[in-house]
Structure formats: structure tokens, C-alpha cells
Design goal:
The chain has 2 domains: 2-67; 70-195, Nucleotidyltransferase, domain 5 (2-Layer Sandwich). Mean pLDDT is 88; it is low at 208-212. It is built from 6 helices and 9 strands, in the order E-H-E-E-E-H-E-E-E-H-E-H-H-H-E. It has helices spanning 8-19, 61-66, 109-138, 154-161, 185-189, 192-195, and strands at residues 2-3, 23-26, 30-34, 40-44, 70-77, 80-87, 90-98, 147-152, 198-203. The strands form 2 sheets. It has a 5-stranded antiparallel β-sheet with strand order 1-9-4-3-2, covered by helices on one side. A 4-stranded mixed β-sheet has the order 7-6-5-8. A hairpin with a 5-residue loop joins strand 3 (30-34) and strand 4. The protein has 212 residues and is an alpha+beta fold.
């Protein structure tokens, strides 16, 4: 499940209320809350690493998740692409585009080879156009960015980000990728709900009261 940063403290507090106060184990990448009955809530740290603060609630995870960040977003799928810059959840710069790339054909022979060459040419044009867009939107704002988040088709994203112009962005790339449909303006605008969320896994241990 995904938990909005603003709901994270309440989510974990309610988990402990249901299962009994327990322990918190923190690391730069994962925070695990284990309740008295053995149930656990495992939270993946967004934008790691977490600077663990033993004096703060849940090792500082809540404050870390709610921190205001300026995030660049790169979305790529076959023929479609989008780039944006968010100040917290607010989109402050963006550009969306597309280039036609034909689907695969089951035909064989010489026609298939000619089709494949045409498709490869279209794909190269689409990758170049996507890289141009990312460079236009993100590179002028590089110094202000805290992180880069990529989404869509992983192979296509990697191909775009391999452009030599975009290498300064790579060190800021977050490990998690966003699962999104074809990049559109509305899809781009909705991404803060994905990249700001804390991914949590809850394991409930049901105690048989008759045996307790």
C-alpha cells in the first residue's frame, strides 16, 4: 500500500494502537515498526537515505517524508514522453510530447525487414525528442533539484537518460520507478501522489485469545 506523507504519522500510530506499542528499527532505506503482538509495518524510505534521528518519531521518517523537495520527473513510453519540475506537489515547469512509433508486425520476409528498419528509425527520433524535452525542462533547473524520478517503460527511460547531455541528472535519480500509463499532462500532474507516497507493507499477526 501507499501512504501519503501527511497521513503517515496517523497510520503508524493507529497500527500501534491496534497491536500494542513495540519497537522501531531504522535504516537509511527501510523503517520497520514491530508491535507488541508481533505484527509489523515495514515502510520504504522515499528519497533515501534517511538520516536516522533516534529522538524523533519513527526514527525521523515522518519528517523526512514530509520534507518539501524540488523534484524532476521524466516519463517515457513508446512514442510518448513528459518532463516536469515539482515544488512539493506543485508543478512549476513542464513539457509533454509524442512521436509516432509503429507497433510490431508479425509479417516476415523482406517487408518485415523494411518495416523493422522504419520502426527503429522512428524509435530513434522519439528517443531524441524525449531527451530534448528533458534537457529543456530539467537541465536549466538542475542546481535547484533535490531528486529525479523516472517512470513509464524502464528500457525507454534508460535509453533517454543515456543521452550524454543528461548525465548530470543521473546521480539524482531515485531508485524507485513510477508505474504510469502513456505520458499526458494529466498523468504528469498526478505523479506527486506516487513519488511522495511512502510504500508500506503490513503483516498482521492474529492472536487466538482463547489460547492467550
Amino acid at each position: 500500500m501507499s501512504v501519503e506523507p501527511e497521513r503517515l504519522a496517523g497510520f503508524l500510530d493507529r497500527f500501534l494502537d491496534r497491536h500494542g506499542a513495540g519497537s522501531v528499527v531504522t535504516s537509511p532505506d527501510v523503517v520497520t515498526v514491530t508491535a507488541a503482538d508481533g505484527s509489523l509495518a515495514e515502510c520504504v524510505v522515499p528519497f533515501p537515505p534517511l538520516q536516522v534521528d533516534g529522538s524523533a518519531a519513527y526514527g525521523g521518517l515522518v519528517d523526512h517524508a514530509q520534507r518539501q523537495r524540488r523534484v524532476g520527473v521524466v516519463l517515457v513510453r513508446r512514442g510518448g514522453f513528459a518532463a516536469g519540475v515539482f515544488d512539493g506537489p506543485r508543478l512549476v515547469a513542464s513539457k509533454v510530447g509524442s512521436r509516432h512509433v509503429q507497433g510490431r508486425s508479425a509479417a516476415g520476409g523482406w517487408s518485415q525487414q523494411r518495416f523493422a528498419r522504419r520502426r527503429e528509425g522512428q524509435a530513434r527520433v522519439a528517443v531524441r525528442a524525449a531527451a530534448d524535452t528533458v534537457a529543456e525542462v530539467l537541465l536549466p533547473r538542475l542546481e535547484a533539484l533535490d531528486a529525479i524520478v523516472a517512470g513509464g517503460d524502464r528500457a525507454a527511460c534508460d535509453e533517454v537518460l543515456a543521452d550524454p547531455r543528461l548525465q548530470p541528472l543521473v546521480p539524482l535519480l531515485a531508485p524507485a520507478r513510477l508505474e504510469v500509463p502513456d505520458p499526458r499532462q494529466r498523468v504528469l500532474e498526478a505523479t506527486p501522489g506516487l513519488f511522495r507516497a511512502v510504500r508500506a507493507r503490513v503483516v498482521d499477526v492474529h492472536v487466538d485469545r482463547a489460547d492467550a
